[in-house]
Amino acid sequence: MASPNKKTVSAVLLAAGGSSRMGNDPNGAPINKMLLRLCGETPIAHCVRAFSRSADEIVIVCSPATESAAEEAAKLASVPIRIVGGGERRQDSVLCGIEAASGDTVAIHDCARCLITGDIIERAVASANEFGSGVAAISVRDTLRRASDGETVDREGLVSMQTPQCFSRDLLLEAYAQLDRSVTDDAAVWNARFGPVRLTEGGLHNQKLTTAEDIPFFEKMLGERSPRMRIGIGEDTHRLKYGRKLILGGVEIPFDLGLEGHSDADALIHSIIDAMLGAAALGDIGAHFPDTDPKYKGVSSLLLLKEAHRLVSRAGYRIVNIDATVTAQAPKLAPHIPEMRKKTAEALEGVDCSQISIKATTPEHLGPEGSLLGVTCRAVVLLDLIG
Predict the structure, then answer these.
(1) Which residues partner with 258 through β-bridges?
(2) For 140, which of 14, 108, 158, 235 could close a Cys bridge (C-beta 3.0–4.6 Å)?
(3) Cα separation, 259 vs 24, whole angstroms
(4) pLDDT of residue 66
(5) Do the beta carbons of residue 291 and residue 357 sit within 8 Å?
(6) Contact 268, 325 (CB under 8 A)
(7) From the CB of residue 155, how many other CB atoms can be counted at a distance below 10 Å?
(8) What is the pLDDT of residues 218-259, one digit of tens each?
């Protein structure tokens, strides 16, 4: 949750266009670029991934033709997301999106620019947060000539506009309310009411998917950028004390001592959660399930594991395997390991016991674990991109 002084950001992703310049498929049917699979995912999905890391919420503006692709992409978001219908013109679709948004700042982005990166987003958002507007753009690099007479056009001061185009939501709504003509982008809407926008650095790679000839370039760029496999490491230690249940891997184990903690203190599950979140770059267990929140008091860590798995799945990853080790002097854990694996797999929908390894080792009376002061668990999780 954003702090009281931090401006919230809504990403408005535009996916309602008609793809008029994309051409036809071999059967003569028009190609809708929002439905293309680039490295296994649609342009909408790639944009949802990118903005999930920078926005507090996402609004996807779609057409009837792209609604199902938007719904599929929405499953990848790690922030709240909603889907709304677009309008006849781009500016109509943008208005639908910003009216559905709730953030202080809106980041409007064409999903056709699915090579967008976090640094471009963050620069534009930071400018909008401080000055009211921030629009990604790059300087014109090539010689420009008029086709009609071949005369060179002075490129000094000329820029190519990109997205995201970010603005104070309230001010942009005011500008749209006074708009009385068709425009090609939101910078023109802002300019008509408030004057020139503030430009931020875009990128040469932040190209717009426009024609069928662009597809190989986009696939190459996306393929190079996104390695499929990601590894995370998690570790958790809890103190042993009298009067607590000893729960590891969701299994209650008979013993005089139990693990101390805000939840059920299942250090094994906590280490797996941290490894999962770490592999997907989604923070750690404390960020998602803080021990200061009363709703997690005494909660089963298997429920937290289910929620962490949902976050990882929505970010576009699936679990390949889990390897975890429990370090404890006592009690003997080997008889309980099959049930631990079973409970863990049941909490991870779609994951089989064969993908989960849990081992136990004793520290030979060395260290705090050897003195029965606590138990330490470590886990490694391998994730793979879905699709």
Answers:
(1) 241
(2) 158
(3) 63
(4) 94
(5) no
(6) no
(7) 13
(8) 988 887 766 678 999 999 999 999 999 999 999 999 999 999
pLDDT digits (tens, 9 = 90+) for 285-334: 999 999 999 999 999 999 999 999 999 987 778 999 999 999 999 999 99
Q: Which amino acid belongs to residue 186? A: D
- For residues 246 and 265, is the Cβ–Cβ distance under 8 A? no
In single-letter form, the type of residue at position 379 comes to A
Pairing of strands 159-168, 105-110: antiparallel
Distance set, CA 307 to CA 282, 288, 340 (Å): 12, 9, 18
Both tokens of 44, joined, read 């909408």
Q: How high is the mean pLDDT of the chain? A: 92
Cβ neighbours around 293 below 10 Å, total: 11
Q: Quick check: bond before 368 cis, omega within 30? A: no
Amino acid found at 4:
P
| Long-range contact set of residues 336-343: C-beta below 8 Å, sequence gap at least 24 | 336/248, 336/249, 336/251, 336/253, 337/249, 339/249, 339/251, 340/248, 340/249, 340/250, 340/251, 340/268, 341/249, 343/249, 343/250, 343/251, 343/302
Q: Which amino acid is at 335?
A: P
Tell me the per-residue pLDDT of 68-95, one tens digit each, with 9 for 90 and over. 999 999 988 889 999 999 999 999 999 9
φ/ψ (deg, to 5) at 297: -65, 115
Residue 285: closest CA among 359, 379, 349: 379
Are 316 and 386 spatial neighbours (Cβ–Cβ below 8 Å)?
yes
* Other beta carbons less than 10 A from residue 134's beta carbon: 25
Q: Which of 250, 248, 237, 309 is nearest to 279 (CA)?
A: 309
Q: What is the DSSP letter of 132?
A: S
Beta bridge partners of 167: 106, 133
Q: For residue 224, what pLDDT is reported?
A: 72
Helix then strand count (H, E) for the chain reads 12, 16
SS3 32: coil
Q: b/e for 255-287, b at 16 or more Cβ within 10 A?
A: bebbbebebbbbbbbbbbbbbbbbbbebeebee
Crossing angle of helices 90-100 and 169-177, in 10° steps, is 140
Find, among 52, 97, 102, 104, the residue nearest to 78 by Cα: 52
